[in-house]
TrEMBL record, chain A:
<dbReference type="InterPro" id="IPR001851">
    <property type="entry name" value="ABC_transp_permease"/>
</dbReference>
<feature type="transmembrane region" description="Helical">
    <location>
        <begin position="94"/>
        <end position="112"/>
    </location>
</feature>
<protein>
    <submittedName>
        <fullName>Branched-chain amino acid ABC transporter permease</fullName>
    </submittedName>
</protein>
<feature type="transmembrane region" description="Helical">
    <location>
        <begin position="179"/>
        <end position="201"/>
    </location>
</feature>
<feature type="transmembrane region" description="Helical">
    <location>
        <begin position="139"/>
        <end position="158"/>
    </location>
</feature>
<keyword id="KW-0812">Transmembrane</keyword>
<dbReference type="InterPro" id="IPR052157">
    <property type="entry name" value="BCAA_transport_permease"/>
</dbReference>
<feature type="transmembrane region" description="Helical">
    <location>
        <begin position="254"/>
        <end position="276"/>
    </location>
</feature>
<dbReference type="Pfam" id="PF02653">
    <property type="entry name" value="BPD_transp_2"/>
</dbReference>
Automatic annotation (TrEMBL), chain C:
<feature type="region of interest" description="Disordered">
    <location>
        <begin position="323"/>
        <end position="348"/>
    </location>
</feature>
<feature type="transmembrane region" description="Helical">
    <location>
        <begin position="209"/>
        <end position="234"/>
    </location>
</feature>
<feature type="transmembrane region" description="Helical">
    <location>
        <begin position="160"/>
        <end position="178"/>
    </location>
</feature>
<dbReference type="InterPro" id="IPR001851">
    <property type="entry name" value="ABC_transp_permease"/>
</dbReference>
<feature type="transmembrane region" description="Helical">
    <location>
        <begin position="288"/>
        <end position="311"/>
    </location>
</feature>
<feature type="transmembrane region" description="Helical">
    <location>
        <begin position="12"/>
        <end position="27"/>
    </location>
</feature>
<keyword id="KW-0812">Transmembrane</keyword>
<keyword id="KW-1133">Transmembrane helix</keyword>
<feature type="transmembrane region" description="Helical">
    <location>
        <begin position="58"/>
        <end position="78"/>
    </location>
</feature>
Length: 286, 236, 348
């Protein structure tokens, strides 16, 4: 019993981290049909800058803020320099974002060195407590709560504010949104920046969770996010939360029982969804 | 001499590598309903999309209120005061009717609220289905919503693309009536295949054939000109 | 065979090939020969990628999996059996059959998908192969990889050079033939306009699957040569960096030209060698992948046609201009226009 609940909590925490990464990916895709292969690069930059300032200042909160700011700035740069010149050309977009991913990854090694960096959670999030015979690890609980918070705040913005309304409308029909006098490029830039910030936050939160950061983890982790985006339906925000939890829990159980197959199982899940329901489980319709 | 609100001069446009518009020239006088006629595929829809900036102008000029708008971005053109009701209506399917209207509203001042009330009086169905998703509306209701959305802002010019398409005759009458009411307040450029409807509300007409404006005149005269109608519109 | 019918360019390519035969007798330095051999191998790999990206318009981020299949098949066979020519031939056969089966299955499952999904899925699949190679240590030796021995003749640098050159030339002419055949023309039609090709009655998925099998088999063969040139294999043959390398070669050289990827492979291989030798001068050159990445991004933005494509376009435009004077090409465009406009909106 306690084993299963521990695995479920692990899965939820992993799921939340994947969700934060996938959320930006899915919104950017939904709004501009850009599949950003550089998203994992924003994840590692968030992790490295966040951890660097966390270890320098000793404050975890400062680390998180720095990661988010890095994400916003990198998002702005990526959108302006990388995505905008090839706007509307799918093949170029796919090619260029993968190239940029590699540049971001290698640049990490230039700035922070090629070695792994060990990270531990801050004192107030270390340790665990029992409820009955179920063990709760504080840091994992923290990730789950933060992830849910991000989800609900984002949902509120998407559903209740004018900018959220415009984003949702843009996912369905870009041309019409422009014809109503809205500067869709500005909206896109904003969404891109927020998506990048969420990816960076995900990287920062992931660091103490896995205990170590290294440059290649961006691409590895973003493959999970791609799987989630496909399963949840490209462009569907709630779909990506659902799929992220699904993949997170599957990952946690497989990692415990058959570690060699954990990626394979998720890939299988994605392949099955792609073959039988290529639009994903939740798909935003026009 | 009536001043013209919109003037196209020898406009050419491509879609991908296909040369669709070769020579489109016409004027839309202020306060009137001008109709673009022509067969399927003649380039009428492309003309409206080009005015809206959804298609690039490769040659020629588009002048709106004395200002060149040919190469502006779509949202800037819209903000000059041009409303667009596209052929496929462009309803946001998962947003409710109310949310569709809210996306369209540029301001939330008193005047816009007034216009909103007026529009909702014109299309009471929209009020009735305010919380229904746009995708769940019938074809006629979608068309009304699309027109209402273009109308809720104070626009100088409305571009309406085939509002009668695929609608039952009784709904067409309703749409016709609403456009007739609106033309009291705004200038309209209408693309229409339904000749009967077009002749009810239109004043001046232009015929587009093969990407060129080939003929123009007054709607009343066109009704009599059987030769012209047969040649370009296939109506006999 | 009627020699007069052979294209002029064919003679030029043959002449260059003959020149390359002489090279190892002039350049006797082993390391230089090794670099040229690597260039030949990557040229083959890049040409196989061009069949996908350049001729069919498919973006695969997992093409490296076939390269890796070829490399590991050879290494494992040569490691387990005697180091004879016979086992080498067996290794090639296994490499080709495995690559054909995998590319067939992957293609049939995924080529119906849109380009984004396909790119993503192939990236993930290649990731799976990488993880597989790391975890299945008994077979692959994991991350560290393993060395293996080769028959005498394949250990000799000059004969290896000739083998790789011969393979390059044969594969180049073979693929060139393929792209100029009716089959190749259908592939290019798919690249230009998938819907239209489909409406003409072609089953595009079949054509795409065949293209990906051809590309997979050729890439696997490049992998075979790669592992024998190193006499060593490790998981790096499945790494995404390798995919980026081959992308860079194809794109710099010029997609859809076959000769472009060869030139691209040469440029990248020699630049790689030169940049790594600069690592002593400044540590930044150890991170030459950054420079690659930046060049790659700039090429995608500013020269999407690559070197050969850009030259061809200039040349082609001049030719076209002269033709235009003689006839009015607009007529032909006009004929297809009406339905096109309709079609564009219905699908838009």
């Amino acid at each position: 019993m306690d084993l299963i609940s521990t695995l479920v909590i692990n899965g939820l925490a992993t799921g939340m981290l994947i969700f934060l990464l996938a959320a930006g990916l899915t919104l950017i895709f939904g709004l501009m049909s850009v599949l950003n292969f550089a998203h994992g690069g924003l994840f590692i930059w968030g992790a490295y800058t966040g951890v660097w300032s966390y270890q320098l200042s000793g404050s975890f909160i400062i680390g998180i803020i720095v990661a988010i700011v890095t994400g916003l700035l990198l998002g702005l740069i990526t959108e302006k320099l990388i995505i905008r010149p090839v706007y509307g050309n799918h093949i170029q977009q796919i090619l260029i974002t993968l190239g940029f991913m590699l540049v971001l990854q290698e640049f990490i090694k230039v700035v922070f060195g090629p070695n792994q960096i060990a990270v531990s959670p801050p004192a107030f999030l270390q340790g665990s407590f029992y409820v009955g015979d179920v063990i709760f690890i504080k840091y994992r609980l923290f990730i789950i709560i933060l992830g849910l918070l991000v989800y609900f705040v984002s949902m509120f913005i998407l559903k209740r504010t004018r900018i959220g309304l415009i984003v949702r409308a843009g996912v369905m029909n870009k041309e019409m949104v422009q014809s109503l006098g809205i500067n869709i490029r500005l909206v896109f830039m904003l969404v891109f920046m927020v998506g990048a910030a969420l990816a960076a936050l995900s990287g920062m939160l992931h660091a103490p969770y896995s205990g170590v950061i290294y440059a290649e983890m961006g691409l590895e982790f973003s493959i999970l996010a791609f799987i989630v985006v496909v399963i949840g339906g490209m462009g569907s925000f709630s779909g990506s939360l659902f799929a992220a939890i699904l993949v997170g829990i599957a990952q946690a159980f497989m990692a415990y029982y058959v570690p060699a197959l954990s990626l394979a199982v998720n890939m299988l899940l994605m392949t099955v969804v792609l073959i039988f329901r290529p639009q994903g489980l939740f798909k935003a319709k026009g | 001499m009536m001043s013209s609100l919109l003037r196209l001069n020898q406009v050419e446009a491509f879609i991908q590598k296909f040369h669709i518009l070769h020579d489109i020239s016409f004027e839309v006088p202020k306060g009137e309903v001008t109709v673009l006629l022509g067969r399927n595929g003649a380039g009428k829809t492309t003309t409206l999309r080009t005015i809206m900036g959804l298609n690039k102008v490769s040659k020629g000029s588009i002048n709106f209120q004395g200002e060149e708008i040919g190469n502006l971005l779509t949202h800037r053109i819209a903000n000059k005061g041009i409303g667009f009701v596209p052929e496929e209506q462009g309803i946001f399917g998962e947003l409710t009717v109310g949310e569709n209207m809210r996306v369209a509203m540029k301001k939330e001042d008193e005047q816009t609220t007034k216009r909103m009330e007026w529009v909702l009086d014109l299309f009471p169905d929209l009020k009735k289905f305010w919380k229904k998703p746009g995708g769940a509306l019938s074809g006629g209701q979608k068309q009304m919503l699309a027109i209402a959305r273009a109308y809720v802002n104070e626009n100088e010019l409305l571009l309406i693309d085939e509002p009668s398409k695929g609608l039952a005759p009784i709904i067409v009458d309703k749409v016709t009536e609403s456009i007739q009411q609106m033309k009291e307040q705004t200038t309209i450029l209408l693309v229409e295949q339904n000749f009967l409807m077009a002749s009810k509300i239109g004043k001046k007409f232009y015929i587009i054939d093969d990407g060129r404006t080939v003929h123009s005149g007054q709607m009343d005269e066109l009704k009599e000109d059987k030769v012209l109608m047969k040649k370009y519109l296939g109506i006999s | 065979m009627n020699l007069a019918k052979v294209e002029k360019s064919t003679w030029i390519y043959l002449a260059i090939s003959l020149l390359l035969v002489i090279v190892p007798f002039i350049v006797t330095g082993r390391s230089m020969q090794f670099i040229i051999i690597q260039f030949f191998i990557f040229a083959i790999f890049a040409m196989s990628y061009d069949i996908l990206l350049g001729y069919t318009g498919i973006i695969s981020f997992g093409h490296v999996m076939f390269f890796g299949i070829g490399a590991y098949s050879t290494a494992i066979v040569m490691n387990r059996f005697d180091s004879t020519i016979l086992s080498f031939i067996l290794a090639i056969i296994i490499a080709i059959i495995l690559a054909a089966i995998v590319s067939l299955i992957v293609g049939m499952l995924t080529l119906r998908l849109k380009s984004h999904f396909y790119a993503m899925l192939t990236l993930a699949l290649a990731g799976l192969f990488l993880v597989g190679a790391e975890k299945w240590r008994s077979l692959t030796g994991g991350n560290d990889g393993f060395t293996f021995s080769l028959p005498e003749i394949l250990r000799d640098s000059q004969s290896l050079y000739m083998l790789c050159l011969l393979s390059l030339v044969l594969i180049f002419f073979g693929l060139r033939r393929l792209t100029k055949s009716p089959f190749g023309r259908v592939l290019m039609a798919i690249r230009e306009n998938e819907k239209r090709t489909e409406s003409l009655g072609y089953k595009i998925v079949h054509y795409k699957v065949i293209a990906s099998v051809v590309a997979g088999v050729v890439a696997s063969f490049a992998g075979v040569l790669y592992s024998i040139s190193l006499r060593f294999v490790n998981t790096s043959v499945f790494a995404t960096d390798m995919t980026i390398d081959v992308l860079l070669m194809t794109i710099i050289g010029g997609v859809g030209t076959l000769i472009g990827p060869i030139i691209g492979a040469g440029l990248v291989e020699f630049a790689h060698h030169w940049l790594s030798s600069l690592a002593d001068v400044h540590w930044i050159f150890e991170r030459w992948i950054i420079l690659y990445g930046i060049v790659y991004i700039l090429v995608v933005i500013f020269f999407p046609l690559g070197i050969v494509g850009t030259i061809q376009k200039k040349f082609f435009n001049r030719q076209n201009y002269q033709k235009k004077k003689q006839q009015n090409p607009r007529r032909k465009l006009d004929e297809g226009r009406k339905e096109d406009e309709d079609e564009l909106y219905r699908n838009g």
